[in-house]
UniProtKB/TrEMBL annotation, chain A:
Protein name: LVIVD repeat-containing protein
Top-level taxon of origin: Bacteria
PROSITE patterns in the record: PROKAR_LIPOPROTEIN (PS51257)
Lineage of origin: Bacteria, Pseudomonadati, Bacteroidota, Cytophagia, Cytophagales
Native source organism of the sequence: Larkinella arboricola
TrEMBL record, chain B:
Source species of the chain: Larkinella arboricola
InterPro entries: LVIVD
Species lineage: Bacteria, Pseudomonadati, Bacteroidota, Cytophagia, Cytophagales
Protein name, per record: LVIVD repeat-containing protein
Pfam families the record matches: LVIVD (PF08309)
């Protein structure tokens, strides 16, 4: 039953990811209702009527049912070195320097820990789709000397996340997935695109060495990349090519 | 026997050293140095200045950080300075609409027509119904801990004093008897 539901979910994700028809509100400039989408490096996440904010040590919850009047609902302590937060499927995936917390939102005002997927001391943004979460581990000044790699974690049982793949990287930062394409920022070393048709066996499609990237948002066939050279937008499709649509360059 | 226990002692030392590197710097520890040393000094801004949010004409993109999308909008964080609001209804021709100056800003999220931002130590809700005239709806003061230490590790620094304002950055300086170390 569960896998059947996940199947539907994957299907839906793939549909919204690829369908041009779903592009209904991109023609309007009004932000409209509901919440938007952030990158994987985000420390803010909105799920339903709550805003979740992580800082160094904790997760802070705000009630935003009335969006113009946020009110604090309290905070939960989380180890140390909290880096990123990603809302997915009634859960929050929180990347910390020692591991990935999976918190359930059964009570959205008070997220409860479902699991802690431990990994080597490192910085680690995370995204999820279908039965898998994708975590990048990066070393760097504030993260000491961790490894640089991409880990794929089977989350079909959220209480028992299991690593199913690990790929060495150079300097991975943010990442994003849409359908069967996984985009991983490699900092000054560019941007990598993987075929994620089989997450257990990711296939590198291409490395764009010239796209210095910090984070990405893939949304409805448009990939937005932020990095030291500015904001770049690419069209992607099943042909697995990236076509440059526009750039907002750095102005000095 | 002694030879056998030696490596484990080294291991133990290494482990405690690693632990120290990892955990020892989360709080400021007092150090006692008698002479001038190279270190970091906090640069302050007044709470009033930091809490001034205003909508400006489009500004140059200099140091882009995080990004956020909502409807036809693209929000780009200018690290530590605020948010560029972009009309991205045509991704082939993104148009800058305005720049919302938010000192200390790094993160953002949008629900309905409200943009939530971190504004140094505060969390602020902004009305973006008219992105050329963004207004403050609510400010939650001291939502974040006071920035009492630099992100760099292994450096002595002049302890930050919340009475002097908010620390906006750290600069290198010759310090006499710095009391803080991270």
């Amino acid at each position: 039953m569960k896998s059947y539901l996940y199947g539907i979910l994957i299907g839906l994700t793939a549909l919204t990811g690829c369908s041009e028809l779903a592009n209904k509100d991109s023609g309007t400039i009004n932000p409209g209702g509901g919440s938007g989408t952030g990158g994987s490096m985000a420390r803010f996440a909105i799920a339903g009527n709550h805003l979740y904010v992580v800082n160094q040590h904790s997760l802070q919850v705000y009630d935003i049912q009335q969006s113009d009047n946020p009110s604090s609902l309290g905070k939960t302590s989380l180890g140390f070195g909290v880096e990123t937060i990603f809302p997915y499927n009634n859960h929050l995936f929180i990347g910390t320097q020692t591991g990935m917390y999976i918190m359930n939102l059964n009570n959205p005002a008070k997220p409860q820990q479902t699991a802690l997927y431990r990994h080597i001391f490192s910085c680690d943004p995370v995204v999820a789709q279908g039965n898998y979460a994708y975590v990048t581990l990066r070393s760097g000044t504030s993260c000491n000397t961790g490894p640089n790699r991409l880990e794929v974690v089977d989350i079909s049982n959220l209480e028992y996340p299991v690593q199913v793949n690990s790929i060495p990287m150079i300097n991975p930062h943010g990442l994003g997935i849409d359908g069967n394409l996984l985009f991983v920022s490699e900092g000054d070393s560019g941007l990598k695109v993987f075929d994620a048709t089989d997450p257990v066996d990711l296939k590198l499609i291409k490395t764009f060495n010239d796209i210095r990237s910090y984070d990405v948002i893939p949304n409805r066939s448009v990939l937005i990349v932020t990095g030291k050279d500015g904001i770049f937008q690419y069209r992607y499709d099943s042909s697995q090519r990236l076509t440059l649509l526009s750039k907002l360059p750095i102005e000095n | 026997m002694k030879h056998l226990s030696y490596p484990s002692l080294v291991q133990q030392l290494t482990v405690s050293l690693l632990l120290l590197t990892a955990f020892g710097c989360e709080t400021n520890t007092e150090v006692d140095t008698a002479q001038q040393v190279q270190g970091l000094r906090p640069v302050y801004a007044s709470y009033e200045d930091v809490r001034t949010i205003e909508t400006l004409e489009p500004q140059p993109l200099k140091n882009p950080g995080k990004i956020y999308i909502k409807g036809g909008y693209l929000f780009i964080n200018e690290q530590g300075r605020g948010v560029h609001i972009i009309d991205n209804s045509n991704p082939a021709k993104p148009q800058k609409i305005s720049f919302v100056s938010v000192p200390g800003n790094i993160d953002m999220a949008v629900k309905d027509q409200v943009l939530y931002v971190d504004n140094s130590v505060d969390l602020v809700a902004l009305d973006i119904a008219d992105p050329r005239q963004v207004t403050v709806l609510k400010r939650i003061k001291d939502a974040y801990p006071y920035p009492s230490y630099p992100s760099q590790r292994g450096v002595p620094f002049e302890c930050a004093d919340p009475e002097k304002g908010v620390v906006v950055r750290w600069e290198t300086a010759r310090l006499t008897n710095p009391k803080c170390f991270r």
